[in-house]
Structure formats: C-alpha cells, structure tokens
Amino acid sequence: MGKATTVTVAVIVTAALVTAIVVPMTYFLHPDYGKDCPEDEEELSMNERVDCYPEGGADQESCESRGCIWDDAVTDENSGAPYCFYPSDYGSYRMVGEAEEFSWGYRVALERLDRPTMYDKDMYSVILDLEYHTDTTIRFKFYDPSNQRFEVPIDMPSTATKATNTLYDVEFTSNPFSMKIIRTDTMTVLWDTAIGGFTMSDQFLSISTRLPSSNIYGFGEHEHPQFRHDLNWQSWGMFSRDQPPSRGNLYGVQPFYTCLEEDTNSHGVLLMNSNAMDITLQPLPALTYRTIGGILDFWMFLGPTPEDVVGQYTAAIGRPYMPPYWSLGFQLCRYGYNSLDRVKEVVAGMREYDIPHDVQYGDIDYMLRQLDFTYDPDTYAGLPEYVHQLKAEGTHYITILDPAISVNETVGTYAPYENGTASSIFITEEDGETELLGKVWPDPPNIDEIMQEIDCQGDWDCEVENYRAHAVFPDWIKPGCADWWIDHTVDFHDTLAFDGLWIDMNEPANFVKGSTKGCDYNNILESPPYKPRIYGDVLADKTVCMAAVTYNTPTTTTTQYNMHSLFGLTQTEPSLRAARLSTPGKRSLVVSRSTFPSSGKYSGHWLGDNTSIWPHMHMSIIGMMEFNLFGIPYIGADICGFFEDTTEDLCRRWTQLGAFYPYCRNHNGIDFMPQDPASFGPEFAAEAREILHVRYTLLPYLYTLFFYSHTTGSTVVRPLMHEFTNDAVTWSIDRQFLWGPALMISPVLDEGAVEVDVYVPDTRWFDYYTGQEVPLSYRGKSNVLSAPMDYIPLHVRGGHIIPTQQPANSTVFSRELPFGLIVALGDDYTASGSLFWDDGDSVDTIEDENYFMESFTASSNQVDGEITVSNYVMDQLTLDDVTILGLESTEISSVTLDGMELNPLQWSIDETLMKLTIENLQHPMDNGFNLVWS
Questions:
Q1: pLDDT, tens digit, for every residue of 536-565?
Q2: Any catalytic annotation for residue 504?
C-alpha cells in the first residue's frame, strides 16, 4: 500500500468554514484513493486473524471464494483461531469524496468495493454519521441511506451543536475504509477497524476493532466465569432467551462493554442494536461484532475513570430507578408453596426467630391455573385478607405476572383475554391479523379431566402438549396495549393489594417452538443466512416466530426478528406505571427477568433460575458487577439457589453473601427442599438474623448509594478495580466486591472453607465488627483471613464515613430507630460521607427535592455534620452513636457536642484498637452538629 497522508477536515470543508472551525478530527487519505488497494503480502499473526467464515464448516475452496485466506495450521495455544480469515488489506468499502461537516458532527459516504459477497444483499452505499454529543461521548452510526432499516426505538440524547473540546479525535483511512478513535491526551487508539472484516449486508453486519488493552468487562446477559473477559477466542451470543444461567445467551441483551486501558484510563462502548448478534473476543486483543439486522449504531463514552464511564452511559440510556426503601430489606419467595397455609407456616417461622422480613412473594402457584390476575380460591382462600395482615406486621407483598394470556377460558369468564382480543393488542402472525398462539404456564379449565385421561408422569414435552392452554402475547407498543395491562393490573390490586410487580417469562418465553402450528422456516427471518452463536437450531426456539408482526412505534409495525429482545423492556415501563397507579403516590417496584439497555430506568433484575451449587455464588458476584455497569444496580441472585436441593452449609454461606446483594431475595423452585432461613432450625436462624441485622444497620448507606446512582449514574455494587484503578491486581478481582467506595465484602465461596483469600488494596481498612485496623503489612497483597462458618469478612475503608441505623425485623420499624455513624479515618486522619433520606416510598421525592441530605466530614479531632437539603422533616429521628476508627492518639480528656461537654459515661476509648465510641447522643437529625474530642 502507499504511504498515508494526513489531511485535516478544515482543509477539505468549504472555504467559508475553514477559518471558523478548529476540529479535533482527521482522516488518512491514500495516494491511490479511488483505486482498489494492492494486496498486502505481510503475513498476519495468528492473533490478528478475523474470521471470514463465522458460520463454520469452511474448507479451502469455500474460504478462498470469499477472497479470504485458508490456513489450518492452528497451534494449540491458538486453538480458537480461525482457519479462514481476511487478508491484512481486506476491506469492503472506500470513502467517496470528503467528510461533510454538519452542526452536530460529520458525515462520511462509503461505497462498496468489488469484493465477493458473503451473505448476499450487500449494501453498496453506506453512510457513517459521527455525532459529537459531548466532550466525552461520541456516536458513530453506519447505515444504508437508500433503505430505511430498523433502528431500536429507544429515546437517546440528540445534539444540535457538536462538542469542540473533545477527549477524542477521529481518523480515517480512505481505501479500503477504516477508522480510528483516539484519546487526545494520551494518543491511545480506542477503536481501530483496520483489522478488517467490515461488512454491511441485509442480514449480516459485522465490524471488527483492535482493542487498546485486554481489560474488557461487560456484555450480557450470560453467565461469565470471570469479570474480566477471557479473550482467548471467546464468542458470546446475545438474543433474549428463557434460559437458566449457562454459557449461552440468557434472559436479556446488554451489548455494552467497558475497557480499562493500560494507563488506567477507561472507556465504554454500546452497540444499540436489538437483532440477534454475537461478539468474538480474540487475544490480539480485538473484538468482532456480528448482527443480522438493523444498523451499526455505536456510542462511545470516554470516562476517563470507570465510574465516569458508567455515569456517562446512564446519562445516555437513562439513570437507574430509585427503589423504595422497603425493597432493600430481606425478601422471601418460592415457587411451590402450593397453599396459603404453607405460606403462613413459613412467615410464622420468620417471626418466631425474629428474622428480618420485608417482602413476601406470590409465585405462579398462588394463581388459579397460572392465570394472570387471579388467585386460587381453594388453595389460597383468604389470601387478600392475609396480605393486609402481612402489611400490618411490616411485610410488603409482591406478586408475579407473566405476559402470556390464556385463550382457552370459557367465554365471559376471563376478561384479560376477551378485552385484549377485542382491542387487538396481541402479537399476530405474519398476516398481521391472526393472533399468534403459543403455550406457556396457564392450564386449561378442564385440566383435571385431562390429567385423569393422560398421565404424563412428569414428562415435560407431554405436559406442554396436553396440560398447557393456548396463549397469546401482548404487543406492548401497540396502541391500547399498555392501557389494557394497566387497567387489569389496577383492577387486580383492588382484589390483592400488592406493593410491587415481578414480571417473568418476558423474553418472551414460549414452551413450543414459534407457535402452536410452528413457523415458516423457509422464511429468511426464521432461517437467516448467518445464525449468530445462540442457543436453538432456529431463532424461534423457545419463543415466538420471527415473522410475527409487532409494533415498534405506535404507528408502525415490524417483526419479532427486530423487536424480540426488546419485549422485556417494552413490558417494564407500562408495568411500573401500572404498579404506581395501583398504589397512588407510591414509588412501587418492578423486577423484570428480561432486560435491555435502559431497563434500569424502570426496574430491577434478578439473575434468573440459578442452581444450588457453590460455583453459582461466585457467578452471582460477576453478574451483580456487570449489571451495575449496565445501569441496573437493583440486582441480586436467588439466595441459596433456585434449582435442586441446597445444603445447610451452602445456604449459610449464600445467606452471608446474599445479605449484600442490593436485591436480597431467597427464592427456590417447586419440589425442592425448603430453604427459608427458619427451615434449618434455631442455630441457622440466629446466624441469618445476625448477618441480616448487619445489612439493616447499613441500609442508610445503601439507600444513599442508590440516591447517587439515580442522580449521577454511579454504581452501587462495584468491583475493586473501580476504586483502585491504579492497582493492576484489582483488574481481575471478582471474588470480592464493594458497596460504593467504602465497604469491602469478601465472602467464602468454596465448600468447607473456613479461611478466605482477601486482597487488601493499599489504604487503611478496618474490620467492620471490631474496628480493628488491618495491619500495614497486609496492604497491597492477598492475605488469608479466618472465616468460620458463621462469619463473612467485612471491612470499612479509611477516609469514609458510613451512616447506619439500628436494625429491626422490618424497615417499617427500623426507619423509626436512631442513626449512627462509622467514621473510618484515612491515612491523613480525614474522612467524609453523606446521608440521603426521604419518606422512602413516595414518587419523585428527589425530582421534587422533598428529601433530607447531610454531609459528614472528619478532620483532626472532630466530625461535622452539615445539612445541605432539609426539605424532608426527620421527625423525632436522632443521631445516637458515633464510632471513630483509626485515631491518631487515644489521649482524650473530653468530648463535646456543639460545644457542650458530654458525660464521660457516654464515650469510651479502646487504646488497643485506637477506637473512640460515643453513645446516647440523642441528637436531633434535623440539626447539623460539631463533635470534638480533645
């Protein structure tokens, strides 16, 4: 190839603009621009190969027919490297003319080179728009200007005026086309498509990029074995699926990753595309995207810190939802209580052992034959009255609702279907009129008779065929559908006074392939020329037909091929509206199984139907950290596991870990042994109560973290790497995690272990339980700490102040108890923190500024509390105790509060621990304070 010449955009724009702009953007222009580049004979290394035959089954002839190189001499070290790969100079497009400037950024026109087609219907003209949204955010979008292709119907920020003081430059090579995005201050190349393989066709869009480092995090939803991705030729499919945690594509789609560059700057990239896709990570390091529809719509966020990246990302997709305070308490559920009497027994056990219990659930067994908006009048007789009783005792109630609606009920007996079909709000077959029928959970009215005639003896396929009713699926964006859902949900609340909604099976799940009469598998939507690396032999496996008609705006339709992975998201927003209209003025709660970028605006998520095995504890930490990257911080896993029988020791260790899930719920499946905390007897119950009391003590801190997540996009659960970015050891740690910046949790994750390896970043740390400082010699290294069966190591970080509150068996009661502070002094003997507080349940208290905010600072020998927002009255609430850890000196003769000397009985010194404990302050929270020891 000829040598590239650098030409600035200012040179190529019109003369009238040259003197008016200073543009941080360049492109490379080859001397032989407009011609096909001669082949580059330089041999590619194994790690540089981009797969030219990703569907598999290539041989030398089929590979070379695509203009690609065949080499099957793959080494053991690179066993995943492709045999068929693009030449080093391979590109499918070249630039046409010059980059055109607009108020929002730049537009580049591309035309296809004379290359062999891979999957037909190639796009011969492609436009690249580069939108300079902010100094730290750039959008780059590839699309076909001659064909209005599907774009994800999510409102994203727009810009009329491009940012000019950007952290990024953009450079192009014209022929074949490639682009680079470069961080201006370090010149790190963040995005470089010169590795080849850029393809735009009707049902195959692919682009590859070199990565600036191997520190890649995110992408979902999958069960990843480690938080930092393995780049050894790993491929991950994305297409929402009713699939328990496993290697493949799971319930939601999250095509977002973050990258920690080698100099510790960080950036993130979103591909806003909802079609079936896969990504391949290779050890160069490099990344390849392949999707079978839509456009390539990328957003890059340049941080530069990991927390900055998440904040910028959630600013684009929407800030996380602010959960009600009660939803941070302990929650209990199982599929298969099978009667209200059994629910009462379980709740009575929680009461007997005084175990915190904020939320009780109803899974599908409370329903009449699994029909939405019903409860079984026999097995759950008296449920509405019992829900009111639970509330009086401080326990809220959440009910499950599935999207599939039975069509087999007797006419006049099931309004949800009759009203829905009268309003034509269900997904239809390809003709746009006939309701698509599937099968999910509802049983038909004559199920007892059928079961007498046909004994399936537990065979799943037999049960689906004979025991399941036909069902339809709501088309959530279709006019009238959201109102239909809201109306029936509000009406159901008049019967069963739930406090929140749990929406499940919303991938959407379907127990038959496509529909009850199958799909037309000759249709290119059902059998595209390239099938991403996802489960199932066809796209409609375990869901509805891809050719099914569904709305993508209130006035336009598309197909499930495009909208499938958005089903859960489009159900979530009307579900939150329904929950709030059911409980007027209340914030309420929605927890959704299927998610997509921006789901966190409306709901939380749990990590699905895990199994009662030790490795799933570790996987849950990875999942929690990933969903905080995705802007869904209200996240947790089923404590003790959903499938299979747990063991007492596994459930004990999982309860310790689960006490630090933001979404803290014990949930297990039908026909397995009970695993609620009371079911193992008094010793286990006492241990569960103790660790849950720790959680409840720390809830003011957790709630404050959610305030910052809602307002700034920061993470709640975060990896150590986010706080100690300069420490390369933390880049791969995923068996420990943080609550915000200040609390480190190091659970035991191995069977039989009574010790745990704890990495201690290089700063002051204090044992949560005793206040003892971690020895200086432990800093910056892994240390084996004792962790007996009833203990989980917790450490408070120096330099931080954590607000606390005395615990109770429900947040209804703990919210009335006194507050405290844990003041952990840093190496410089300073610390800071804050407390956010409101009524915990009302809508928009933050937006309306109807809240209380206090900032805390410690320096030298004093702690100050300054009230910064006082629009919520802290009626009768007091600050009662303050613990100062890491004192510079224990020679203290007096302690004063707002200039008044405290009684010596109110404070004590532990000279060994260098700890000052102050109690019985009874200081009104409505007032700031100055606490001094001298």
A1: 999 999 999 999 999 999 999 999 999 999
A2: yes
